[in-house]
Amino acid sequence: MSSDRGPGQDAESNLKSVLTLLFEESDVIQKTLVPELLVSLGSEIPLAQPADFDRIIDESIRLIHHWNPDLQAHFIAGHPRIGETKNLSVLSSKEQSGGTSAAAPTPPEVLLRLQHLNACYEHVYPGLRYITFVNGRSRATIAEEMEDKLGIRRSLLPDQPPVESLVPVEANSRPWLAELHRAVEDVGRIAKSRLEKIEREGFLQLRK
Predict the structure, then answer these.
(1) pTM
(2) Which of 13, 103, 115, 120 has the most CB atoms less than 10 A away?
(3) Greatest C-alpha distance within the chain
(4) What is the CA radius of gyration of the chain?
């Protein structure tokens, strides 16, 4: 039986698979990013050399920065929250582990703290999700980074400060947009790091 898929459809499907691996699953990849990349880079985007993928990441981030803020926020929400442990992609699981293992997992109090800090962050920056380039750091270190970002005292308490005690930043204000810009940039940094892992460990191995 012959396939009804043409070369253009195959190129689109391959590009979507690559972008999902590098950026995490998001419907905006298929609906918006893939079509824009096919226009920007041409319908026959090479996917053979590391430099090809590097170029795709750079162009993707450039295009995403030109989207409206709501679409950018939807894109970054494809990444899991810091501290999540279930339903993670292989790469997200590796990134978030921060050197921990099944024998020495992240302490439960740190995971509870991160859950609270995510709620605090999403209250302060409505519509955004906290994104950071983990780069091998532990979840406890990321918790401290989040506390510094929010300007709150370092603690392992699972409910302090109360979420409602924090003052929200107005959506689309300058500080909110600056935080969105930082998050998109960090998604690009994460993708570059993933590309390095793919080169070292192999594309197929990381998809298992």
Answers:
(1) 0.88
(2) 120
(3) 64
(4) 19
